[in-house]
Request: fold
Amino acid sequence: METRLRGVGVSHGVAIGEVRHLGTAVLDLPDRQVPPAEVPREVARARRAAEAVAADLRARGNLAGGEAQEVLEAQALMAIDPELLADVERRVGVGATAERAVSDALASYRALLAGAGGYLAGRVADLEDVRNRIVARLLGVPIPGVPDSEEPYVLIARDLAPADTALLDTRLVLGFVTEEGGPTSHSAILARALGVPAVVALPGAREVAEGTVVAVDGSTGEVVVAPGPKRRAELAEEAAARRAALSRVTGPGVTSDGHTVPLLANIGRPGDVAAALDAGAEGVGLFRTEFLFLESGRAPSREEQAGVYREVLSAFPEGRVVARVLDAGADKPLPFLTPGDEPNPALGVRGLRALLDHPEVLAAQLGALADAAEGLPVHLEVMAPMVADRADARAFAEACRAAGLHAKAGVMVEVPAAALRARALLQEVEFLSLGTNDLAQYTFAADRQVGGVARWQDPWQPALLDLVAMAADAAAAEGRSCGVCGEAAADPLLACVLAGLGVTSLSMSPGAIAPVRAALRKHTLAQCERAAAAARAADGAPEARTAAHAVLSGE
Ligand code: PEP
Ligand code: MG
Reply:
C-alpha cells in the first residue's frame, strides 16, 4: 500500500528505486562456548570470512583507483594479517565463537593503534570497518556501512558524514533520504554534487524496509513509499518534463533586464569538473580542497597538491576559480591537524584557526596553488574559511603574500561577526564569499548536522538574509565582490532574492545551475530587489519564502 512521508527537499529531481540502508555498526555477537570438537571448523569459518572480506576490499579498490584504492588495499591486508589470524585461532581454541574471536582480536589491535597516536590513530576507523565486515559476513547479515549492491538504489541513512561516503560507489546512488541532517548537511551537499535528488530530516525514514521501492521528490520533500505502477509512471513523466524545460535555457547568469550574476560551480575534486562544464558553469566559486587531506589522512605534499589543483585550473581557461584553503575541524576532523578532544568542535579550532596553528600546512597549500596557476591564464582566487575578525583576514592575506601567490585573497563570511564587520575585513582582503551553511549554523546556534534543528538552518531565515545584505552592502561600498557559495545559492527562488540583496555571483553544485539560471532569466533586477525586501520584512523562513514567491509570481 502506497504511503507518503515528508521531509525537507534539498536537492532537486525525482528518483525512483529500491531502498538500501547505510547500515549502523550494531552487530550482535553470539556468546556461546565453542566445544573443542568444533574448533577447527570454527577457525576455518573465521579464515574464510576474513579472506572473502579481503578479496572484496581489493575488488572495490580496483574499482575506485587512486587514494581510495590504497586505503582499501591496506584494509585488505589488515583483514588477513597473519598475526591477527593467529590471535583469532588462539581465541577460538579457548572456546570463543568466530564472531567473538575476530571482534576481540581486532579490538586489541584497535587499542594499539589508538595508543600510537598520529597517523596510526587515524586508521582506527578503517580497522573498525574491517571488523564490521568480517563479523557481518560471519553472521550472514548485510555489511554495516556502504550497501553492497550492484544495482542502482535509493540510499537511506541516519545521516551521512564525509567518511561514510568515501567508499560509496556514487554511480549506483539514485537519491538520498536521511532522518537527520538539514539543508546544509553533508548529505545535502553530496546529493547536490552528484546531481541526485535528496530529502533530509525525515523522521522514521530508516523504518522503510530494505528493498522497498520509493519515489523521492527532492523539490517538494515528499517520499512516496511503495507507489503503484501508474503512480510511478506519472512521477517519472513529471520529472522528465521538468528536466526538458530546464535544458532549453542556456548561457550565463543574467536577469531578464540584463543584470549579470555569474553562475559558478561548487566542486570538491577534479572529478567534479566535467559536471560543472556540462552545466555551463562560468567558473568555480568554491573549490573545496578537503578531499585530498581527508582521503589520505595526512597533509599531502606541495607537489601532490599542485598536480591536483592544476587539473582543476586548466579546465577553466580564462575563467574564475576560487579555491578555498583546507577547512578542517568540526564535521571534517583531521587527527593530524585538529584537536580531537574539543567539547564543541564546531566552535573550536576549525577552518582558518587550525591552519594558523599549523602555518606550514597553510604555506604548503598556498605554495601548491601558486605552482598550479603558473603559466595558466585562469583567474585564480583564494579564500579562507571560518574567518571571524580583521586579524584573521590580515593573517590570511599575509600568508598569501608570503607564499608569493598572484591571486586575489578573500574570506568566507561564515561567522556573524564577519558579516557585521565586513567593511573592516575588506581593508585586508579583496573579496567576500558568503558561506550561508555555516553562517546559518552560527547565527541560529543550530548544528548543521542535527535534523531536529533543521528549521533554523533554513537559509530563508530573515536574520540570515539581513546578514547577507549587510555583507553585500559593505562590499558594494568598498567596490568589491561578494558572492554566495553556500547552499542558499542552489535554491532558484532564493537565488533571485540573493541577487536582489546585491550579491555579485552565485556558486552552487553543478546540478543546481540550470534551475537557478532559468529562475533568474524570468525576473528583472528590480523585481528581485522587491522580493528581497519582502523576504526580509517577514517574521520567519516560511513566511519569507511565501512573500518572495508572491512578489516574483506577481500575486
Ligand atoms: C558554507 O559553510 O556555506 C560553505 C560553503 O562551506 P562548507 O559547506 O564547506 O562548510
Ligand atoms: Mg562552511
